[in-house]
Amino acid sequence: MARPGSDPSQSAAHTKWRWRKELLAERRRVPGAVRFSEAISLSTHLTSGRIVRPGQTVCAYVPIGSEPGSAQMLEDLAEFGARVLLPVVTGDGPLDWGWYQGRDSLRPGPYGLREPIGELLGSFALRIADLVLVPALAVDRNGVRLGRGAGHYDRSLADTATGTHLVAVVRDQEIFEALPAERHDIRMTAVLTPNRGLLRFV
């Protein structure tokens, strides 16, 4: 894939826009069968016992469109014994959170998201998480994550407790040497891909 943003005279925001455009176009070209296979691999990694342990709290997300993962991944985590929190968008501020209680407990939300219908726990629910799975379009080897640009995760992840693992979830081809970064960007501690599994950043 072409690597946009090589002109240092461009602002980081404009460069990110170019990255997003190309990465989203690349994802849309991935066959459904490949996405399905990758989703199974991601779920297998998460429930192998090497990333998540029964009894831990995992902040996850319901993938939309061509995002890596699947709703089945949430079911697998719950059956494995993890407690799963899902994000709820409540305006422009940090994300709220609610417990995942099965597929029937989800309702449509903003941006095409599916959100839990139960009690909302507040943005500080992130503090009880052992691990946060963060949707991303790409990540670089310094932990810089490129999201979709709404900023909800960057405003939220600052509330995590010290030592919480922040894991970007991307396809294997979406790890780069360097991505454009801004001061407010929250760095990931690891990345999870279908074929390479969990890669930690030093």
From TrEMBL:
Coiled coil: none annotated. Its cofactor is Mg(2+). The keyword ATP-binding applies. This is 5-formyltetrahydrofolate cyclo-ligase. Keywords: ATP-binding, Ligase, Magnesium, Metal-binding, Nucleotide-binding. GO terms for molecular function: 5-formyltetrahydrofolate cyclo-ligase activity. Belongs to the 5-formyltetrahydrofolate cyclo-ligase family. Pfam families: 5-FTHF_cyc-lig (PF01812). NCBIfam families: MTHFS_bact (TIGR02727). It comes from Actinophytocola glycyrrhizae. It catalyses: (6S)-5-formyl-5,6,7,8-tetrahydrofolate + ATP = (6R)-5,10-methenyltetrahydrofolate + ADP + phosphate.
